[in-house]
Amino acid sequence: MQAKSEPALRLARSDAPASPAEARPARLSDTHVERNPGTALDLDIVRALRVNRSAVERRASTIPTRRTVKKEWQAGWLLRAVTMIDLTTLAGDDTAGNVRRLSAKAAHPIRTDLTDALGVSDLGLTVGAVCVYHAMVPTAVQALEGTGIPVAAVSTGFPAGLSPLEVRVREIRASVAAGAREIDIVITRGHVLTGNWQALYDEVKLFREACGDAHMKSILATGELATLGNVARASMVAMMAGSDFIKTSTGKEGVNATLPFSLVMVRMIREYQEHTGYAVGYKPAGGIRTAKQALEYLYLMKEELGDRWLRPDLFRFGASSLLTDIERQLEHFVTGRYSAAHRHPMV
Questions:
Q1: Which of 76, 145, 204, 279 could form an S-S bond across to 8 if both were Cys, CB 3.0 to 4.6 Å?
Q2: Are 238 and 199 in contact (CB under 8 A)?
Q3: Which pLDDT value is given to residue 187?
Q4: 281, 245 contact by CB (below 8 A)
């Protein structure tokens, strides 16, 4: 088996330093991100946002080809990617047993023989969070006790987000009371499609207040927003309302995370930070199943927002099967052979 090289080891560590050449805003340090408090809704900024679709698509198409990592560097990037996965189960047939097994995988995401061969056993790698429906929050909290891994609950009438407003707010509060430390809310797509930005702002702000100390990720359902301009404006309004993360999709739409959607959203994150000084996280979700795709999103974050967004406090993957392929790629790096997916079960 191959020994893990020092460059890859540095990439695997969650505290790896950013490039010294990069400017660090006052509210974004190597160790702490000050929470986004939101701002007043500025409709002049929102309505002025424009997106050149052809330019976005051209730029997005270059992301997989502009940068590549191989061998030990690829292993290091993939180990880092593991720490940024929100390991997710959002199926109608979820059971307490499935959630407990998924939680066990979250605490030990890479097989021990592989971490030993890679020389990273001492890092105690875990995923970023376990994401479940509200009904499964108590089970996940109990299963993850002592691991430090937060439970994220999808809420507010996920995935459609069309429950009565008071029901959605109560669901957030119930998930927080049950122990969820992160809440993934869904917006009302109709507010975006009709340009009712005040209603969208008020809704997301109300959800943020209901979350309390729990971090809030706002799911925009980008595949249902019709235009990239709407994706940009919805992203900006969600951040103005106090979102800690903006997230592409529920995973239930016909079109989920894509590089063009992601490029627009991370550019809005950059613009929001330039206006306010506050850093907002990003979470692509839905359809990200392979290590190659994960690397492409990491390239995007590094090029557009910098090294500081390659940590779990500012970047997450919403995924259920991605970890399987990453583990297979790491086994290939160690042994030179690809293994069957059943050797890396999630549950």
A1: 76
A2: no
A3: 98
A4: yes
From residue 125, give the alpha-carbon distance in Å to each of 56, 102, 121.
35, 15, 8
**Burial of 321 by CB count in 10 Å (0-12 exposed, 13-18 middle, 19+ buried)?**
middle
Q: Which two tokens stand for residue 68?
A: 């590549």
Tokens at 154, concatenated: 């999808």
pLDDT of residue 26: 46
In the chain, what is the straight-line distance between the N-terminal and C-terminal CA atoms, in Å?
A: 27
Q: Is the pTM of this model over 0.90?
A: yes
Q: Which residues are catalytic?
A: 184, 247, 283
CA 246 to chain centre: 8
CA–CA separation, 30 and 240 (whole Å)? 24
Mean pLDDT, 10 residues at a time, the chain of 347 residues = 48 44 53 92 97 97 89 96 98 95 97 95 96 98 98 97 97 98 98 98 98 98 98 98 98 96 98 97 97 97 96 96 95 88 68
Cβ-based neighbours of 244, under 8 Å, separated by 6 or more:
35, 36, 215, 216, 217, 280, 281
Q: Which residue is listed with tokens 């695997």? A: 12
Say what the pLDDT of residue 67 is.
80
Residues 6+ away with beta carbon under 8 Å from 37: 242, 278
The confidence score (pLDDT) of residue 326 equals 97
Q: Residue 208: beta bridge partners?
A: none
pLDDT at 339: 79
Locate the domains of the chain by residue range: 34-343
For domain 34-343, give the CATH number.
Answer: 3.20.20.70
- For residues 49, 318, 85, 36, the Cα torsion angle rounded to the nearest 10 degrees is 40
The count of C-alpha atoms lying within 13 angstroms of the C-alpha of 40, restricted to the half-sphere facing its C-beta, is: 3
E-assigned strands of the chain? 85-88, 129-133, 151-154, 182-186, 215-219, 245-247, 281-283, 317-319
